[in-house]
Amino acid sequence: MQEILQKTGFICDMDGVIYHGNKILDGVVDFVNWMQENDKKFVFLTNSPERTPHELSMKLERMGLSVSPDHFYTSAMATAAFLHSQNPNCTAYVIGEAALTKALYDQHIYMNDVNPDYVVVGETRTYSFEKIEKAIELVNNGAKLIGTNPDTTGPTERGIMPATGSLIAPIEIATGKKAYFVGKPNPLMLRHGLRKINCHSEEIAFIGDRMDTDIIAGIESNVDTVLVLSGVTAKEDIDKFPYRPKFILSSVGELVE
Predict the structure, then answer these.
(1) What are residue 202's phi and psi, to 5 degrees?
(2) What are the sequence ranges of the domains in the chain?
């Protein structure tokens, strides 16, 4: 425990670590207060591209936790940064929410439904067959297929629902083209987090609740990993994977009890 507490900074997943739906998990307020009181650097890293940092900050505020927007980094932001680094001033056809479009605009990537450089897919409630058809047409005409994250499902207040990996699958199948996913477990996402808090890999701990995205991303980035059992992973699930987290805790609250 002391080894974790002595870290300079923390990168934390959100759903299953900080909250479930619209409920803050036990011990989280104490953990965040401890980080702020001890001048720890921290960033919340989420594979969800549906909300901007300001919206995520407001969501936590409504749940009784005050964290400024500069402490958040999303897969939408990572996707936009990746496309800008690959092809500055490119264009994209987007299937996703407004936060994804805003992240792309912030990197001077503009919308194009005629001959875009990329088709970008993220979680959305406005998924339709018409949009799938359009995306397939554009990919067949040469647009590169990008997914904000590879998650096939995600937890909601109504239970498990389809996420980006599921939404992009019909486009992959129909075109025969595999998408490139920017979010976790792609180490790119974690490296963005490290840059955001200006830390080296050995100075931080990465806290997540998923073995297949969070823990593998940390291992591949040479970062000490902390698996919390407050999300989707149970203790008996760990042995199903060929890798293990460095630390296992019931929740982040256990760090500061």
Answers:
(1) -75, -10
(2) 2-47+184-256, 86-181
Q: Is 239 a residue of the active site?
A: no
Measured distance CA(119)–CA(192) in Å, rounded: 22
The two domains 2-47+184-256 and 86-181 share their CATH topology (first three levels equal)? yes
Choosing from 15, 151, 209, 224, which is the catalytic residue? 15
Q: Is 39 a catalytic residue?
A: no
- Residues 203-247 pLDDT 10s: 999 999 999 999 999 999 999 999 999 988 999 999 999 999 999
Name residue 63's beta-bridge partners: none
Q: What are phi and psi of 180, to 5 degrees?
A: -100, 125
DSSP letters spanning 52-115: -HHHHHHHHHHTT----GGGEEEHHHHHHHHHHHHSTT-EEEEES-HHHHHHHHHTT-EE-SSS
**pTM for the full model?**
0.93
Q: What is the pLDDT of residue 159?
A: 67
Please tell me the class of the 2-47+184-256 domain: alpha beta
| pLDDT tens-place string over residues 146-193 | 999 999 887 666 667 789 999 999 999 999 999 999 999 999 999 999
Strand partners, 180: 146
CATH of domain 86-181: 3.40.50.1000
- pLDDT, tens digit, for every residue of 193-212? 999 999 999 999 999 999 99
Considering 13, 151, 209, 214, which one is annotated as catalytic?
13
Lookup: tokens for 198: 């200006």
